[in-house]
Every structure is written in C-alpha cells, then in structure tokens.
Amino acid sequence: MKRLFANLAMASVFSFCAIVAVAQDTVSLVPSQVEGIAADSPESGAAGLLQTMEERFVEGNVFFMSLICLILLAGLILSIERVIFLNLSNVNAKKLLSRLEDALEKGDIEGARNICSNTRGPVAAVCYQGLSRIDESPDVVEHTANIYAKIQINRLKKGCSWIALLFKIALMLGFIGMVGGLVVALDAVQESGEATLMIMAGGIKMALITLASGLVVYLLLKILYSFIQAKIENLSNQVKDAFITLFDMIMKYNLKYKK
C-alpha cells in the first residue's frame, strides 16, 4: 500500500514538472513561430486538445496555473489514498456479526476473537476490543468499545481536513488570479491611454482562465471530498450498529455461561 502511494506521488510530481516545462517552452515561442508550427503541422484530436491546454496554461499565468495544478495533484493523491483505505476498511458487517454470534452461542470466545483479528476494518477492530473485555463488567466493555470506536472513526477521517483545505485554496487562487488579470488589463489601458478591447484582452483572458481553472479544481476536489465523507459516515454507522449488536451478544453470553 505504501509503495503504491509513493509511486502515485512520484508520477504526479513528474507530471507536474512536465507541464511546467512545456509551458515554459511555449512561452519562449514568439507568435510567428507558433503560427508557423500550427500551419506546417496541423494537429487534431488529443494532440490538438493538449496544445490548446498548454496555450491556456500560459495565457492564465504560469505561476498561478502551476500552483493550481500542484493543488490538484496533491488533492487527487490524498483523495485516492482515502478512497482506497475506506474501500479496504469496508467489510460485510452482517456476515461478521453472524459468525461472532455463532461462536458466542457455542461459548467459543477465542474463536470469536480470532474471527475479528483475521478480519480487516474498524468494525472488526471494535468488536475485538469488546470481546477482549468480555470477562469484565458491562460498563467496562461499553466504555472500552466506545473509546476504540472513536479512535477508529478518527482514523477514517485522517487527511480529509487537508483535502478540504486544498479545494478552498484552489478557489481562492482562482479569485486572486482573476484580480491579477484585471490589474494587468488596467495597466495596459493606463500605458496606452486607450480603453480598447484589444488592449484589455490579454489581462481579461488571464483573469477568466485562472478563475475557471480554480473553480474546476475546487469542484472536482469538493465532489471527491463529499464522496469520501459519505463513505466515512457509512462506515461510522456500521461501527456504531455493530457495537450495539455485539453488546447484546455479550449480555446473552454472560447470562448463558456466567450464572
């Protein structure tokens, strides 16, 4: 798992560096060279789309667009890590509790613990902690399982605050880039002394491209964040329901085997 995340991070960094390098190369081309390339070798499909994205990247200001791309890559890495972790943490809680109930009805505490220890996820971990205190009073069992349930739920939420911070920063960068583009447009008007559309076009284009990029990254990471939160809520409810069911099983076990 750690190797997968490391490879993903390295690939993202290399992709980001490639984007910046291509953008810098595009900046170094004068307009006549760009037109000559377009005329001599017309591109279509994916190649044409890539060239358009490179041009928009440069027109939106390399600095701001680089920051937005970096935020997008970081947000995607964190989101993918959380989705994978949550998917691995998700188990069939009903099937697990059914197996535990069968083991407890037979009085096989050790077997029930082995079932929990061999099952991944927060539900099994909380059940294991409850079964580890089965010989103690019900209050101790409930208190221990409650504390461990909170620990497991906090583990599920790990990294989510960073995702929320990143999509908020992306939105703010979009607005800041928009303001910067408008300032560039006004500076051009001030220098020329004329408020024509041609003079203001560069600054306005920068403002709109930066704002649009920030909004796209914001929406993408926000959707991923909401999806992750929904999965966390579902797993949290599973943990709480499983604990209540397990507590009832333990009470029945105590009544049957500890008279």
Automatic annotation (TrEMBL):
Membrane topology category: Multi-pass membrane protein
Subcellular location: Cell membrane; Membrane
Major localization listed first in the record, in broad terms: membrane
Record's signal peptide: 1-23
A GO CC annotation given for this chain: plasma membrane
Domain MotA/TolQ/ExbB proton channel: 122-239
Record GO biological process: protein import
Record keywords, A-Z: Cell membrane, Membrane, Protein transport, Signal, Transmembrane, Transmembrane helix, Transport
Transmembrane segments: 62-85, 162-185, 197-221
Protein name: MotA/TolQ/ExbB proton channel family protein
UniProt organism field: Candidatus Phocaeicola excrementipullorum
Lineage of the organism: Bacteria, Pseudomonadati, Bacteroidota, Bacteroidia, Bacteroidales
